[in-house]
Amino acid sequence: MGKDSENSFSCLPKDLDQTHPRPWLLVTHGESYQNHSFYNISKDKYIKRNIPEFRHKQVSATSYGWLLLIDYTRKPLNCCLVNTRSKERIELPYIDLESESNSPGSWFYECILSKSPTDPDCHVLLIASLGEFLLFCRIGDEKFIKRGFRFGDDALGTATNFKGKIYAWMCVGHNLVEVDFVNEDILLKQLVNDRGQLCQTPEASPANLLGCVGYLVESCGELLLLHAIGCNLSGEVAYFRIFKIKTNERECEELKSIGDHAIFICPFGNMSWSCTDNSGLKKNSIYYTQFSGDVYVYDIEDRSRTLIKPCCTKSGIRPPLKSWIVL
Asked: Phi then psi for 221, rounded to 5 degrees?
């Protein structure tokens, strides 16, 4: 990575009271996603920064400390992985979706890595937010391979890397699968327990609630699934249910607490963080944003939600992109 990129990352905000890295919310906004604001939870304020390396791009966290950058000003879309600490940059194949839509920004992507991207056997999986397809490649490949959802019931809602394997939650059927890369295809292996039952959560939404969005996250050595259940009138999250996925037993167990941790969720990836370092984070809670960009914290114990920061941007042609990253 060149000096310009190094200088670009030197502009990232810093909290002088912060002794350890912690999650910040990056808000990318503007008609061409040229502006960036960073929300510091402990200080409860937004900090504006001009990060040239981030301009016009979706910036989202993925595993192993890397960020995914997708440039929406180019056709086909330029795509790469960067590490803001080591200053490394790994180019990925272009994303060419002109045959799918005249608007290259019609899809945004959740990125999951099978291994550290410095490993030549690392696979990159992109889950498209609005299109019914996946994109995947291995580091060093010249192009992404596109896989459509073939049967309607094999659409991935969310995925994450856990102990060296990629697990995904299905939109239909609400069951867990393991994702394997075989040659130029992806295999979705259903997890079935000793009793022949699929690894899935119980169906449980009251009649006055509509919609359930799933989020997978690794937390303190455990694989967790969060169900965000929303009211059918407001579209806002009414409450969360949290399940621990027992990958060996291939069963789910509902949790009432996550202890001294907080979970951060967004459309582009999720993370868990310890709250024992005087970071100002609220333990046993979930931080999330609404479509409007407002930031909320959900208390798991009393099932209450609190608006902690209104959105830093005005409504425009494009809604802001929100992603939790570690700084």
From this structure: 80, 10
Mean pLDDT over 165-187 rounds to 89
Cβ neighbour number for residue 98 with a 10 Å cutoff = 11
Output the pTM of the full model. 0.91
CA dihedral 118, 322, 55, 313 (to 10 degrees): -170
Give the pLDDT band of residue 88 (cuts 50, 70, 90): very high
Q: What DSSP assignment string belongs to 227-263?
A: EEEEETTT-SEEEEEEEEEETTTTEEEEES--TTEEE
Residue 20 confidence (pLDDT): 83
Structure-token match 């997978």, residue found: 216
- Residue of higher predicted confidence among 62 and 280: 62
Q: How do residues 215-240 score in pLDDT, each as one tens digit?
A: 999 998 999 999 998 765 556 788 99
Taking residue 222's Cβ as centre, other Cβ atoms within 10 Å add up to 17
Strand partners, 186: 181
Interacting residues of 144 by C-beta distance below 8 A, sequence separation 6+: 92, 93, 95, 126, 135, 136, 137
| Residues β-bridged to residue 48 | 37
Identity of residue 88:
E
